Amino acid sequence: MIPRYLVDVELDQLPVLDKDVIVIGAGIAGLFTAIRASKHHDVLMITKKSLLDSNTRYAQGGIAAVFSDEDSPAYHRQDTLIAGAGLCDHEAVDVLVHEGPRGVQSLINMGTQFDLENGEFALTKEGAHSQRRILHANGDATGFEIVRALSENAVSNPRIEVWDDHFVIDLVTEDGECCGAIVQKPSGERLFVRGKATVLCSGGSGQLYRYTTNPEVATGDGVAMAYRAGAYIRDMEFIQFHPTSLCYPGAPRFLISEAVRGEGAVLRNIKGERFMERYHEQLELAPRDVVARAIVSEMEETKSTFVYIDITHESAEMVKHRFPTIYEYCLKYGLDLTADWIPVAPAMHYMMGGVRTDLNGETNIKRLFACGEVSSTGVHGANRLASNSLSEAIVFGRRIVKRIDGLPPLQAKPNVRNEQERISAPIQAVVERRLKLQKIMVRYAGLRRNENGLKKGYEELKRQLPIFQSILTQKEEFEFANLLTCALLTTEAALQREESRGAHYREDFPTRDDLVWRKHTVLHRTQGITEERIEDV
């Protein structure tokens, strides 16, 4: 079994720092929540790299919210529920679609500049949306613009202290209440940061897979530490693979935004044939999981490692104006978006599951909150609707801060009990272990799954469990332990769900089974795997 704490510490021997609110992570969820919380509280933001290293920064498409007269929250709700394939929480979706516009307004008030056309927001459409409701910035650099505005805000705020290059090892709990976290400084020294509220905004687990659009820092730390602390982890089998990431020798797996298809790009196999009509009536704008699996089928059939995305029929001016970042990026590798077909393949993109929260972002552990990709609010169900993730982070960030405002001061006097003897055996090259784990996940728990493969993957992963008996000291070792935890949770949940739904596809159970499987899989460190029925509204 995975132990309660990753490291042995005597809590009363550690230096203690008191803060009102501790925010772990620095994407849109962390920055927005920290800024909102700083109105009434002293905030500490801890990031293991820097303020600009998060998934948000790479978000191109934009942020979904109802701003057009032709659109309505009811339409947005319907699109979200359809994409979520029967697993969305209706109340959470209602919260998102009604409070999204107000959240976007808060971003604008904090200095975010969205693109305008004739004085109105320039709205675009993405896959599975019925209306134009995606606000974007600098064409296709929405995430970067949001992070720019929010980090300038946070850095200049006297009530927010930012710690770069610090690693949060574990959450400290006492009697079902979170009291803060054990943090390792760049020097290796550890301390206990105590807080009235702790907010996990640590992002997803993209590094579970060898091919991912996520940055190096996305190692599932928040999910893993919450799991160790006794939080419920929900729907980990639902991993969204983005259908179109750049697949070119020497280039990282850079995202070619869904919005490119939204503006008319088509997909072709290596023979040059357009193929989406064989798979779905919405063609290139079908739900992401459908497009990703179609691409894999074409790759297998034509024995290639990629397909092409082609927007050469649109005017060069439009393409450069609308997608300046993607255009420039491809150009670096000698590919011209306006004239060339661009080679693409699916890559891990987003984790739909995570730490289960209520409508105020609070977990089953009192004073512990989760926001953004690390959380499972119920908004995304089995498949996230494009551009709903940024909206979710701000809508639930606002709610978390309201809830924190009403919390009484922390009374608990925590005590960390070490349950096991750790051996100081050095861990053999973490880099190799990480690559091995990624290969297992791609092979057995990727876009297509089956019982034999999942069982085999699960057994191979379990062979790595002795790491939890070792004495860990380095950031890379903690990250590997966290990735291993998330890999085991993902594989176990995928084995449990004997159907195909949303982003979870089982070759041995290719159809969706609402009678048996319209429910969540929930994992808990001591209670194991359980199921949670969906209450129909």
Automatic annotation (TrEMBL):
It catalyses: L-aspartate + O2 = iminosuccinate + H2O2. It comes from the Bacteria. Keywords: FAD, Flavoprotein, Oxidoreductase, Pyridine nucleotide biosynthesis. The keyword Translocase does not apply. Its cofactor is FAD. The active site is at R288. Residues 20-390 form the FAD-dependent oxidoreductase 2 FAD-binding domain. It is found in: Cytoplasm. Gene3D superfamilies: FAD/NAD(P)-binding domain, Fumarate reductase/succinate dehydrogenase flavoprotein-like, C-terminal domain, Succinate dehydrogenase/fumarate reductase flavoprotein, catalytic domain. The keyword Plastid does not apply. GO terms for cellular component: cytoplasm. One of its GO terms (molecular function) is L-aspartate oxidase activity. Residues 434-527 form the Fumarate reductase/succinate dehydrogenase flavoprotein-like C-terminal domain. GO terms for biological process: 'de novo' NAD+ biosynthetic process from L-aspartate. Pathway: Cofactor biosynthesis; NAD(+) biosynthesis; iminoaspartate from L-aspartate (oxidase route): step 1/1. It is an enzyme of class 1 (oxidoreductase). Its EC number is 1.4.3.16. Transmembrane segments: none annotated. Catalyzes the oxidation of L-aspartate to iminoaspartate. Belongs to the FAD-dependent oxidoreductase 2 family. NadB subfamily. This is L-aspartate oxidase.
